[in-house]
Amino acid sequence: MTYASIKTVNCLHGPVDMKSLVLCLLAVACHGSTVKQQRRFPDDFLFGAATSAYQIEGAWNEDGKGENIWDRLVHTNPTVIQDLTTGDVAADSYHNYKRDVEMMRELGLNAYRFSISWARILPTGMANEINPAGVAYYNNLINEMVKYNITPMVTLYHWDLPQKLQDLGGLINPLFTEWYEDYARVVFENFGDRVKLFITFNEPSQICFEGFEYMNKAPLLNTFGVGVYLCAKHLVLAHARAYHLYNTEFKPTQGGQCGITISVNWFEADTDSAEDLMAAELMRQSQWGIYADPIFSAEGGLPRELLDRVAEKSAQQGFPRTRLSDFNEEEKAFIKGAADFFGVNHYTTVKVSATEHKQVYSVPSMLDDVNVGFYWPEENPKSASPWLSMAPNSIYHALTHLKEKYNNPKIYITENGWATYRNSSLIDNDRITYYRAAWESMLNTLDAGVNLKGYMVWSLLDNMEWLEGYIPCLGLYQVDYQDPARTRVARKSALVYKHLIKNRYIDYEYEPGNLTMTIDDGF
Ligand SMILES: CCCCCCCCCCCCC/C=C/[C@@H](O)[C@@H](N)CO[C@@H]1O[C@H](CO)[C@H](O)[C@H](O)[C@H]1O
Q1: 331: Cα within 13 Å, side-chain hemisphere
Q2: What is the pLDDT of residue 22?
Q3: What does the domain layout of the chain look like in residue ranges?
Q4: Among 262, 284, 372, 387, which residue has the most ligand 1 atoms within 8 Å of its CB, making it the best to mutate?
Q5: pLDDT (tens digit, 9 = 90+) per residue, 448-462?
Q6: Whose CA is nearest to atom 27 of ligand 1?
Q7: For the purposes of burial, counting CB atoms within 10 Å of the CB of 523, is it exposed (0-12), middle (13-18) or buried (19 or more)?
Q8: 370 CB under 6 A from ligand 1?
Q9: CATH number of 43-201+212-262+392-503
Q10: Secondary structure of residue 478 in the 3-state scheme
Q11: What is the phi/psi pair of residue 310, to 5°?
């Protein structure tokens, strides 16, 4: 039975297949003449959970690992972390990976998305020196997952650049594309026999915009209006180099896929006015189009309106040339189509206005280039993270937009989740409400013909939430940070997710009797 054939049907009138007919007859016998069938996710839809190295591993300087930009930030500038904490130990997954895999089995996960710490396997960032203990750690984790049929989805770069590369300019240095390709080769060579889903970068906008302008991510550099664009172009080129490397040298024997994950929150125009519609479009172009268009659009290259806007502003500001030039024709051809799938991190909806909610932006800056106002609608329920509120049908709006814009690419939702406060109850009904709404929106998305193949919850377990420290918790499992063993216990949402994975439909009636998690037969 295909997904599309499962609908709310009336047994006596609707055209139904054999399975539906049997269900209907049973329902007629039990309840009368009408049955409301559940919409279901396809059997091969990949349900998983996601984490990243810096946020969970700890062991920041153990077994030969090199320093990365988050290690440097939290140790030299500790007051930027809201609760003055670090990721030095975090959930200590470096020592607890077997328990993490056990949790995956308890949940019945089909897949687990985690990231590799570049500096753990290449302590200096360069590929001349490989750290065997780092490689062994990831081999152990992958082997443990594969043993239990859990598909590894590996992110090569989730924000933790080796510090020695940052000392050389990091993503601002054009040589970054070479360093990254060398690192990607080490990853493919060592893990590609078992890993079939590779993600080159997690959330380019958070790397470039938040790291080089918005002062919200390491390396916290204030290079307003220039650094963000250099970073963006080098990142996209590095992605394309890794993709082509995989495609030509590894895919023929390893047979996997290589994509990129972009933060695609939904930016919605405040009104239907032409000005607000353009404001929302410029926001989308600056936040994710700048990374997605060169790879996924039919024409390639950077988004037109953004290019024009930055050129105009640069001229007004007396720059001899634009601060954002397009890729050249050779680069465009190299980048266009360089992805087997589009990874989407989706959390929320933000409203965008051409005139309202504006702040004073630095000049020059990307914020000033775009020059729009934005806000989170008051009526949307708020989480423990200020940027994350719950918006109606948000996934549907974002993903149907991608379908139209990029000719229906294969999509995995690689992150989606809800933040609660550290001391809140394990009975996390607000998270369950958020998740059920997200899953409902995914079913709408599938109904609309979007080529959506899987979904990863953020996160498997509580972890270090970057500058927000350990204040917000996003895990299906709570981590006890007072306990040196970093004990993990399931929240109620873990049982609800387990029920979804097993049954493939959203059961609003399901209420777990208690919070005990067990490993079911076959896992
Ligand atoms: C230039 C135009 C104006 C820009 C205005 C600033 C941007 C405003 C819009 C903000 C949009 C919402 C911010 C969303 C951010 C998330 O996508 C991002 N934080 C998610 O990152 C992942 O979050 C997880 C949970 O927080 C986890 O930390 C993970 O590591 C991240 O990948």
Answers
A1: 15
A2: 55
A3: 1-37, 43-201+212-262+392-503
A4: 387
A5: 999 999 999 999 999
A6: 465
A7: middle
A8: yes
A9: 3.20.20.80
A10: strand
A11: -70, -35
Pocket test for ligand 1, best of 207, 309, 466, 476 (most atoms within 8 A of CB): 466
First to last CA, the chain: 25
Is 90 exceeded by the pLDDT of residue 6?
no
Any ligand 1 atom below 6 A from CB of 290 = no
Q: How far is the CA of 277 from the centre of ligand 1 (A)?
A: 21
Is the pLDDT reported for residue 32 higher than 80? no
Closest CA to 192 of 135, 240, 148: 135
pLDDT at 431 (0 to 100): 98
Judged against a pLDDT cut of 80, whether residue 103 lies above it is answered with: yes
Q: Residue 378: which of 409, 352, 351, 355 has the closest Cα? A: 351
**How far away, in angstroms, is 51 Cα from ligand 1 center?**
15
- For residues 113 and 50, what is the distance between their CA atoms, to the nearest angstrom? 4
Residue 97 main-chain phi, psi, to 5 deg: -65, -30
* Residues classed as catalytic: 203, 415
How far does the centroid of ligand 1 lie from the alpha carbon of residue 78, in Å?
Answer: 21
**CB distance 414 to ligand 1 below 6 Å:** no
Of 151, 270, 139, 262, the closest CA to residue 208 belongs to 262
Q: Contact at 8 Å (CB) between 445 and 59?
A: no
Nearest to 466 by CA among 297, 273, 220: 220
Do 452 and 399 form a contact (C-beta atoms < 8 A)?
Answer: yes
Question: What mean pLDDT do residues 256-261 have?
Answer: 99
- Helix (H) or strand (E) run with residue 232 in it: helix 227-245
Residue nearest to ligand 1 atom 7, measured at CA: 287
The CA distance from 220 to 73, in Å, is 8
pLDDT of residue 522: 87
pLDDT exceeds cutoff 70 at 34: no
The four Cα atoms 426, 427, 430, 434 give a dihedral, to 10 degrees, of 80
For residue 353 and ligand 1, the question of a CB distance below 6 A is answered with no
Work out which ligand 1 atom sits closest to the CA atom of 367. Answer: 1
Could you tell me if the CB of 415 is within 6 A of ligand 1?
Answer: yes
Work out the average pLDDT over 82-87. Answer: 98
> In whole angstroms, what is the distance from residue 45 CA to residue 154 CA?
18
**Which pTM was predicted?**
0.94
pLDDT digits (tens, 9 = 90+) for 51-79: 999 999 999 999 999 999 999 999 999 99
Ligand 1 atom with least separation from CA of 346? 17
Sign of CA dihedral 322, 328, 334, 339: positive
Say if ligand 1 is within 6 A of residue 376 CB: no
Give the other-Cβ count within 10 Å of 509's Cβ: 4
pLDDT value at 16 more than 50: no
Q: Nearest 5°: CA angle at 209, between 215 and 121?
A: 90
